[in-house]
Design goal:
The protein has about 325 residues and is of the alpha/beta class. The protein folds into two domains: about 5-165, Glucose-6-phosphate isomerase like protein, domain 1 (Rossmann fold); about 170-320, Glucose-6-phosphate isomerase like protein, domain 1 (Rossmann fold, 3-Layer(aba) Sandwich), CATH 3.40.50. It is about 45% helix and about 15% strand. The chain is built from 14 helices and ten strands. The chain has helices at about 5-15, 15-25, 40-55, 70, 90-105, 115-120, 140-155, 160-165, 170-175, 180-190, 205-220, 255-265, 280-285, 300-320; strands spanning about 35-40, 60-65, 80-85, 105-110, 125, 195-200, 220-225, 245-250, 270-275, 290-295. The strands form two sheets. It has a five-stranded parallel sheet, with helices on both faces. The chain has a five-stranded parallel sheet with strand order 7-6-8-9-10, sandwiched between helices. Strand 6, helix 11 (about 205-220) and strand 7 form a beta-alpha-beta unit. The longest helix has 20 residues, at about 300-320. The chain is globular, with a radius of gyration of 19 Å. Bound molecules: 1-O-phosphono-beta-D-fructopyranose. 1-O-phosphono-beta-D-fructopyranose binds near residues 91, 333 and 335. It comes from Methanobrevibacter gottschalkii DSM 11977. This is Glutamine--fructose-6-phosphate aminotransferase [isomerizing]. It is an enzyme of class 2 (transferase). Its main location: cytoplasm.
Length: about 325
Amino acid sequence: KEINEQATSVRNTLTQREHIQEIIDDIDEGIQRICFVACGTSYHASLTGKYLIESLAGIPTDVILASEFKYSANTLNDKTLVIFISQSGETADSLKALDVANETSKTLGIVNVAGSSITRRAEYVIQTQAGPEIGVAATKTYVAQLTSIYLFAALLAKNTELLEELEKVPDFIDEALEDIDFIKEISKRYNYARDFFYLGRGYSYPTALEGALKLKEITYIHGEGYAAGELKHGPLALIDEGIPVVVIAPPGDSHRKTMSNLEEVKSRGANVLAIGSADDDALKTKADDIITINPEVNEIIAPLVYVVPLQLIAYYITLEKGHDPDKPKNLAKCVTV
Ligand code: F1P
């Protein structure tokens, strides 16, 4: 249900545009550095934020895991904006980091749960409009976080082209949900595996991490996301006959190199499941299976759309295995200790 509500989640969050512009008008002056702080899925949304803000607005941006904040955030000052991304707004590590950041810097919370601790303690707040999320694994709140981050980055960079493109995302997501039967069939065929790899470059790298996290969280299958160019620095040793490798390959600057990484794993016997454009004939000839995204979205918008089939793959494998996708073992929706 929550996976299916993602177009609405994006559409409703896009209504925050004016509020985000007001925040930017208020804080823009003098900000020399941005630092995202988050955990889990929210961390992956933050990583996408780094790529966007650095490439569109040219502001140096770091991403710090909330649990590592006290060890690594030693150079914050009043020219730093620290952005806390959290679905619940109650994650203990993020709250501790927020109290520290408030002492030196401007702080902004991007939070789904209204009235939560982060919304009360951060200087500025963007409320994502995903509605309540019951499933422990974040899905519709992830695309809502991304939507807020995209709006923030596009407004900061005064990038009207991206702002226009964002309006189309709800329709792109609905289209991505159309080929469910094929994804179900794929999930049946791939559920034999004990390990999965997810590869992506640039904007698709955080998507690879998020696809692997969804798999781990609800199917209990081991999944690792890698920046595709990192493969040859170690993980390639693990690629063997029949290992599923999910390659996220939207059209754009990263595509050519992603294809050569695909070939590297294919030549070592991997079972390649690619996600790419319906017009990508080269991808069709090289991958074993391909989930096509139609109409085509470019690699900058892709994180908002390509994550949907990855969530669905994890969901259907979970059903195949007879687990409850909403209540994975050992995990809590909100980590308050
Ligand atoms: C972070 C998070 C979630 C994950 C799980 C545990 O929470 O890691 O991404 O799905 O529910 O917590 P939050 O700070 O975004 O609420």
